[in-house]
Each structure stands twice: as C-alpha cells, then as structure tokens.
Amino acid sequence: MSALSLVALVSLVSTVFAKQLEAHPPQQQHRHWAPICSGNPTNRIRGCDKYGCGNFGAHRHGGKERHGGVDVICRDGATVYAPFSGQLSGPIRFFHNGNAIDDGVQIQGSGNSFPLSSLPGYCVKLVCIHPFKYHGQVRRGQQLGRMLPMQKVFPGITSHIHVENCDQSDPTHLLTPNVLPQPLPQIDTRWATVCAGNPTNEIRGCDKYGCGYYGAPRRNGKGKHRAVDVICADGATVYAPFSGQLSGPVKIFHNGNAIDDGVQIRNSDFCVKLLCIHPIKYSGQIVKGQVLGRMLPMQRVFPGITSHIHIENCDHSDPTSNLERGKGQ
C-alpha cells in the first residue's frame, strides 16, 4: 500500500470514528443505566429487613464492614436485563459455597448503545443472577438472565440483585432515574408516606422524653418544638415525601451519637429536613415515594422513647398539614 493510500485510509477511519463520537458521545447518550429487573422499572433499592439494608455503605458483619454494592429489588425468577452495553465475563461468585444464588456476571463497556472498547466507561458485577451467557457482547436493555431463588437461601429477605462497581465505588446515581423536580400538579401536592409501617404518617404522642407535635414544650418549657416527629421503628425503610434535590448531611445533635444524621430535600414548593435517619445518598435527585434511607437506632440513644423521624421545615413552619394530606398515599 502506498503512503498516500495509507494516509487516505487513516483519514477515513478517523472521520468515521469522529462521527460516531459526535452521534454517541461517551457517557452522554445514557447517563443512567437501564432498568435491570422486570417489575422494578426505577431500579428501586432494597430497604432494610432482618438481614440488613441494601444501600451502599450499609453495615455488614456487625458493623465491622460496609456494603460495597447496592441491592436492587428483584423477585425470584424475574428476568434480568443489561444496564448498559458491554463485554461479559464470568462466572462471578460471591459466596463461594455453591448455594442456590452463588452466580453472577461482570459487564464492562462504554455505556453507549454500541461497544467502543477504546472509550472509558463502566464496569459492574451483577450477582445472585444466572446469566444466559458468561462471555461475548450484550446490549443495553437486552435480556441478561434471571434472578436466582434468594428466598431459598435467606427466607424473608427482600430478594435483590447485588450490583457492585468493579472499583467498589457507589453505583446509586447511575441506577437512579434522571428525574428533575417539576412543579407538582394540584392533585399531587400531598406528601407521601415517609416511613414503612406508618402509612398515615402518624405523629408521635407523648412519652417520658416529651411530645412529638409541632409547638410541644422543649427544655422545660423554655423552648418550642419547631418540627413534627413521625413515628418510625428503628431500622425501618424511609421514603421521600416529595420529589426534589438532596443536600446534607444534616446534624441535629452534633455529638456523633448513633442517630446524628439526616438529609434535606428541596423543590420549588417545599424544603424539609428529615433527621435521625441515614440516607442512601446526600446529594442528587430523589423521587416522591422513592427509598430515601433507613431509620437510625433511636432506642440506643433514648431507651423507651417512641422512635421517630424528626421532620422540620426549613423555614421552621408547621409541616403537620402536609403530612396529614399524605395519609393513605
């Protein structure tokens, strides 16, 4: 091949590649991963059950370790889909004991609709699934396999796919749909239920530590409660009352005790702080009714209290009417 022909060929290849990049810029076409389990179109993350919690960084092995992945809810036997396009490799073992859910696969790819091996991208392990194949290419949204029978191994657990980035970074923002907070229509201005097990947002009554209603006495009558305490059992799943932007962490005690954590949610209509919870993330978007985190162990700090989420409007106004409008939602 002559030097002139070689130059022409290189120029042609460069032009084609440039057009591909223009049409499918890396990490632009699909900033968020596709749904990975049938029946869970928003990649909803497992809350807390008797075996633990599904959020990234949750305690493992009695608090000695942290959860290095995210547990996406998926019923036993459900179809599993590829979150992005890429190259498969496996099998991936998690338990190494041959139990009924000890299988999985790794996907590495650009995140675009077609594989571009020269581009940086994603690498993730999907565990507790049986893939249709362990090698070759897979496309975003293509059937990848099926969920294995987790109930057989952990009866009563919220069945889920363990989703773990290869570099053990947090994949939550990639799994969460990119939904911007919009002005809510009048029919949907009620806040959602904020705690599993309390569908009516019931407010804490009075116990030996005080009362949970707005304006209740504090500091022996020298102060007023500028918030509302919504009943929530220790370890229960906490949900976003409305869609909005997260910020935090938000502390109330500033002493590092077991419940000194929380997060703020803001949109064009509301701004609220939810305290004594551990959120799955402190920034980014959240959708109304989406899993926000879990209730922290209040009994450890205040034995005998009615465990609750401290809900405080950013302007210190009374949120009671918003919570009551959420009854049954």
TrEMBL record:
**What UniProt keywords are attached to this protein's entry?**
Disulfide bond, Metal-binding, Signal, Zinc
The source organism is Pitta sordida
Q: Is the Zinc keyword given for this protein?
A: yes
Q: Quote the InterPro entries the UniProt record gives.
A: Dup_hybrid_motif, LECT2
Q: What family does the Swiss-Prot or TrEMBL record give for this protein?
A: Belongs to the LECT2/MIM-1 family.
Picking any one GO molecular function of the record gives: metal ion binding
Q: Which residues form a coiled coil?
A: none
**Which gene produces this protein?**
Mim1
Q: What is this protein called?
A: MIM1 protein
Top-level taxonomy: Eukaryota, Metazoa, Chordata, Craniata, Vertebrata
Signal peptide location in the record? 1-18
